[in-house]
Amino acid sequence: MFLFSSHVLHLVTTTGHQRQLLRQRGWMIALIMFLSLFEIAISQNQSCDPESTQVLQLLYQDGHVVIDNGIFQLTLSNPEGFVTGVKYNGIENVLAYTGHENDRGYWDLVWNFPGKKTKKTKGTLDRIEATKMEVITQNDEQIEISFSRTWNASSNVTVPVNIDKRFVVLLNSSGFYSYAIFERLQGWPAVEIDNIRLAIKLDKDKFDYMAISDERQRYMPLPDDRIPPRGKPLAYPEAVQLLDPIEPEFKGEVDDKYEYSMESKDIKVHGWISTNDSVGFWQITPSNEFRSAGPLKQFLGSHVGPTNLAIFHSTHYVGAELIMSFEEGEAWKKVFGPVFIYLNSFPKEVDPLLLWHEAKNQTKIEEEKWPYNFTTSSDFPASDQRGSFTGRLLVRDRYISSEEIPANGSYVGLASPGDVGSWQREYKGYQFWSKADEEGYFCINNVRSGRYNLYAFVPGFIGDYHNDTVFDVSPGSNICLGELVYEPPRDGPTLWEIGVPDRTAAEFYIPDPNPMFVNKLYVNSSDNKYRQYGLWERYSELYPDEDMVYDVDVDDYSKDWFYMQVTRKRDDGGYNGTTWEIKFEFDDQVTNLTGDFKLRIALATSNVAELQVRVKDVSVDPPLFTTGQIGKDNTIARHGIHGLYWLYSVNVPASSLGLGCNSIYLTQPLAISPFQGLMYDYIRLEYPDSVYHIT
Question: Where is the Rhamnogalacturonan lyase domain (predicted)?
C-alpha cells in the first residue's frame, strides 16, 4: 500500500479533476501534476514497509508450489508449470476463475512436422506441459524455479524441442519474471513452429480497463459479448459486432483483437486495470532482442478476455515466410524473455487510471536493469558478458545534396548474417536495434556474443542499408564502426513522387469507417484511423464504376490516393482485380531524352497479390513489369498499415513516353478475396541520369 502526504492526497481527490484531464487527453498535464505521486508510488511499491519484515517463502501444496514474498503470492502447478494463481492486494486470485486451472497462465506454441499441416488447421497447439520441477535458486533475495520437458525421441506427438520454463520472484518485488530456454539437439527431426507465447487470462469481473499506449486505452467489453446472440461474427471469426453487450455503452461496436496489435519496438508495457479495486496487471518487456523479425514486426498484446500476451514469435503480418523452420538434424538454442509481470495498486481515493503512468515508470526502471543480473541460467548473459557497437550513419544522395546527410531517426541493428533486408524475415537468432540521433550517431548496447551483419533503414529514403561484414561479438567487446555511408537506390533526378518513404501507407487517404462498424477508441484518432474494421469495402463505395486515377500535377496523395489497392466486389458476390492510373505531363524540354527512366515502387505490404506495371497502353500483354504473386501478410484484414517491405525498380524506356499527357498503370489482377491487395509506401519516377548532367 502507498503512503501519501495530505496535500498530495488532496490534489488527487479534488472534484475528479485528474479524471477530467485524462479523459480529455491532457496526458502531459496530468503527468506533471502527479509526478511526485508517482515517485512515491514507485519507491513504496518496490520496497517493504521499514517497520515490517518480509520473508521470501517457497511453499509446497498438493500439486502446486507457491512463492510468497509478502507483497504478492504466485501459485504454479507442479510439475506442469502453469500459472494457476496470483494473490495480490486483498484479491485472492487476479486470474480467470472459470475453466480448468491450466487455462489461466501458460506458455504455449503452435508447431507441425513439415508437410503434415492441413488447410483446416494451423498446426498443433502445445501448452508446454512440463514433466519436471526443480528449484534452481532459493535464498533470502530470490527464488527461481524451473519447469522443464525433455523431448522423447520415441514420441511423434510432441515438438522435438527441449523446453525449460523459468519463473523468478525477488524479495520486495511486486511481480514475477518469466523466461524460457528452447533447445534442439543435433540429429533431431525437422519441425516447423508458427507461434511462441506466454498467455495470461485475468478475472473478467474485475479487470475492465485496458491500456497499451497513452492514446490506446479504454474500458473494454466482456468476452461474453462476443458470443452469439450477443455478438455477431463478421467477415472472419476474430471480428465480432456487439449486438447486445452486457454493458450497453459497447452496443454496435466491432471488437477484434487485431485492432490492438503493436510494433515490436513499441511493446514495452501493456495490461489491464481493475478500476473497482485500483489494481493494475502489466506485462513489461525491457528488451525486444528475443522477438522475431526486427523492430517493425507487429504482434498481438492485450485484448478482450481480459487477456495479456507476451508473443515472442508469430507469423502475423508476415505470413508463411516467418514460419520457424528447422531442417533434419539442425541444432538450435534460444532464450525467450525474461518479461516482467508487474502488479501495482493505489488507494481507492486515487484515480485508478493513473496506474498506467506508474507502470510506465516501472518500465523505465526495468529497462535500466537490463540485462538482468539475477537469472541463474548461463544461457542468459549478464551485461559484462555482452558487447556494444557505436558509429555514425550518413546518407549519400547526390540528387538531393552535394554533401552527405546525417541519417536522422534511422533504425540501425544487428541481426544474423544475411542479405539486404533479411532481418525482417529472421527468427532463429537475436536482434539488437537502436535509433540514431539527429546527427546519425548510434549506439547498440548489450549485444550477445555471436556473428552479425549490420542493417539499417532511414526514414525519408527508400531501401535498406546492409553491411555484409560479419562481426564476431565476444564478451566485453566494444566495436567502433566510425562513419558508415548508405547510398539509397537512385539513377537520376526526380520527375515526380507519390507518398513518403517510411515503410507504411499512413500518409495516404484513409477513409472514414462505415458508421455501422466502428471501434469508438479510434473514431477521433487520426493516427489510428486505419485500425477500423471494413475499410477495404470503402474502395468500391468511393469508386463504384471506375478505378482510381491520380494526376501527379493536380492531386494530393493524402486526399486522393486510397491507402490500399484492393479487389472490387461484384454484384454476384465475386471479385475483380483493379487498375490504378498515374497521369503526368511532359513538356518539350525532355522530348529528346534517350535511355531509361526508372520507376521505383516501394510496397508497404502485399497479401496474395501481384503488381503489374504498364506504360501508355493499359491492355498491352505482357506488362512491362510484374512481381508475380507475392506476400501473405494479411495486413488488410488485420487492420494494419504495413507488413513486409518490398522494393522494385522498373526500367521505363524513354521511347514509351511522349510529349503531353502520359500514363502509368498499376494493376493488381488476383481476385478471389476482399483481403487481396497491396499497400504502397512510396512511388517515384526518375529521369535518365543524362538529365542531371545536362542541367
Answer: 408-479, 494-685
